[in-house]
Write a structure and sequence with these properties.
Number of helices: 11
Order of helices and strands: HEHEHHEEHHHHHHH
Largest sheet: 2 strands, antiparallel
Radius of gyration: 23 Å
Shape: elongated
Number of domains: 1
Structural class: mainly alpha
Helix content: 40-55%
Strand content: under 5%
Length: 286
C-alpha cells in the first residue's frame, strides 16, 4: 500500500479492541505476562541480596495495576465496552492491601539502596562491571554492599548482565519513533479528517483522535462522567465507521518494519537477551 493510497480503498477488517493486538516490534520486548514474571524475579533477586547481607527483606507489592492492554490508548479510546463503563478514564484494579512493613533501619536502607551521595556516574552499568568493582566500602554480614545497593544489583542481574545489554527503553523508543513517522502519512491525516467530520455531525468538535478527551474538555476529574461516557461512545462509533484503528495499525506497522530493517542487529541482540532473561526468571520461580 503506497503512502498515497486513499482511505476509501482500505477494506481490511476493522480493529475493535487493542486486546491481544501485536505490532511488529512486539517480538523484541516482553509481553505483559513476561513483565510480571520479571517483576517477581527482580523482587526475588533483591531478597537474595539482602539475605546475603544479613537482612530479612520482602519487597512491597504494587497496590494497583492498570487493566489496560499493552497498546491501550494507541488509537485513543477504542473499546466500546470500556467507553460505556469508563468514558475517557482508565480502568484500574486494586490489589489486596498487605499490612505495611516496618520502616527500614539506616543499615537496611544502605543495603537496599546504597550510599546517599551516589550519582548516576557512580553506578555500574552492567553486572559484569559491578563484579569487577567488587562492591562499595560498606559491609554487612562480612559482605560488601553492592554499589547502588541490592536494588541496583537485582536490576543489573536481570536486565544488564553484560556491557552490551540493550537499554530497556530501546524498543519503546523505536515504537514512539514509528508512531511519530506515521502521523506524517497521508492515510493517517485522511482518516483523522474523516473521524473529525463524523464527530462534528454528532455535535462534537475535535481534530485529533489521540487528543480527543482534552480537545473535548475532559480532564482527570471529568473523564468518567456521564457526559464523557456519552461522548466516548460516539468517539468509538466514529472510529469504527471510518476504520481508524485499522488504518493506524497498518501505517504504524509499515513504519515499524522500516525501523526494524534499519536496526535489526541491535534488535536481534535484544531478542536474544530477552530469551535469556526469561530463562533466568523461570529459574528463580522454580
Amino acid at each position: 500500500m503506497s503512502d498515497e493510497t486513499d482511505h476509501n480503498q482500505v477494506t481490511a477488517p476493522a480493529i475493535l479492541t487493542t486486546e491481544g493486538l501485536r505490532f511488529p516490534l512486539d517480538e523484541y520486548q516482553a509481553s505483559e505476562r513476561e513483565q510480571e514474571k520479571f517483576d517477581r524475579a527482580q523482587a526475588a533477586l533483591t531478597e537474595q541480596c539482602m539475605e546475603r547481607l544479613g537482612f530479612k527483606y520482602t519487597p512491597r507489592e504494587k497496590t494497583a495495576i492498570s487493566m489496560d492492554s499493552r497498546h491501550a490508548g494507541v488509537f485513543g479510546i477504542l473499546d466500546m465496552e470500556i467507553a460505556a463503563r469508563h468514558g475517557y478514564g482508565r480502568k484500574v484494579a486494586t490489589l489486596p492491601q498487605r499490612e505495611g512493613a516496618a520502616p527500614l533501619s539506616e543499615a537496611e536502607r544502605v543495603a537496599l539502596s546504597g550510599a546517599n551521595d551516589l550519582t548516576l556516574e557512580d553506578l555500574p552499568m552492567s553486572q559484569e562491571e559491578a563484579d569487577k568493582q567488587g562492591g562499595s566500602e560498606q559491609k554487612f554480614n562480612g559482605r560488601r554492599v553492592p554499589i547502588g545497593g541490592c536494588t541496583r544489583e537485582s536490576f543489573l542481574k536481570l536486565y544488564a548482565r553484560t556491557p552490551d545489554s540493550v537499554d530497556l527503553m530501546y524498543v519503546f523508543n523505536l515504537q514512539r519513533n514509528a508512531e511519530s513517522a506515521a502521523l506524517n502519512d497521508s492515510r493517517i491525516k485522511k482518516v483523522n479528517e474523516l473521524w473529525s467530520a463524523c464527530m462534528k455531525k454528532n455535535g462534537f468538535v475535535a481534530s485529533d483522535p489521540m487528543k480527543a478527551a482534552a480537545q473535548l474538555g475532559f480532564d482527570e476529574e471529568t473523564a468518567s462522567s456521564s457526559r464523557a461516557i456519552t461522548t466516548a461512545k460516539k468517539d468509538v462509533k466514529c472510529k469504527q465507521k471510518v476504520n481508524l484503528a485499522r488504518v493506524y495499525f497498518d501505517v504504524q506497522s509499515i513504519c515499524q518494519y522500516r525501523i526494524i530493517d534499519a536496526n535489526i542487529k541491535t534488535l536481534d541482540l535484544a531478542k536474544r537477551q530477552l530469551k535469556d532473561r526469561i530463562k533466568l526468571a523461570d529459574s528463580l520461580a522454580s
